[in-house]
Specification:
Layout: H1 23-35, E1 41-45, E2 51-54
Antiparallel strand pairs: 1-2
């Protein structure tokens, strides 16, 4: 049985060095980072701390 979860992610950033980047460039890089994140597996959970779940779908959508 598959389970579906949705999360809203808010990101706040501050420039530490270098020249300013546009909001569009920042958003594009954040989206790429989220899309390329390792969705992997979730393990060590459940009543016996021995359950493993594999991610079957990983989508990043614009808000």
């Amino acid at each position: 049985m598959a389970h579906s979860f949705s999360f809203k992610v808010n990101v706040e950033i501050e420039r530490e060095s270098g020249k300013f980047a546009s909001r569009e460039e920042i958003a594009e890089n954040l989206r790429t980072w989220l899309t390329d994140a390792d969705e992997g597996s979730i393990y060590g959970i459940g009543a016996d701390a021995d359950s493993t779940y594999n991610t079957t779908i990983w989508e990043v959508e614009d808000a």
